[in-house]
Amino acid sequence: MLLATSDHIDGMHITKTLGLVRGNTVRARNIGRDFMAGLKNIVGGEISEYTKLLTEARTEATGRMEAQAEQLGANAVVGLRYVTSSVMNGASELLAYGTAVVVEDGEGGEAHER
Is residue 36 part of a domain? Predict the structure, then answer.
C-alpha cells in the first residue's frame, strides 16, 4: 500500500478514486507514564513515554486506515493526514484519513502492489 500526503504520487497515474478512508484509536495516559513525564518536566528533555504512546497510536490508526482502503480495492492512499483531539481528561483520539485510490505506473503499466 502506497501512502502519500500529496494528492498524487510521482510516476504513478490514479485510475480510480474509491473515496475517504480513515482509521482511529483512542489512547489514555497512565500513572506510570504521567509520573515519568512529571520528572522530565522538572529536568527537561524528551518525554519518551509519550513519544512511544503517540508512535503506537499513529501506527495503529494508519493500519486501520490501510485495512479499510484494501477492503475497497485500493493500492494507495493519497492526501494522508493525521488529526488529534481530546476525548476526555487524560484520553486523546488520533485519526488518520485520506483518499483511497487505485494507481498504475505512469506508463500505463500494471497496478502497483506492496
Answer: yes
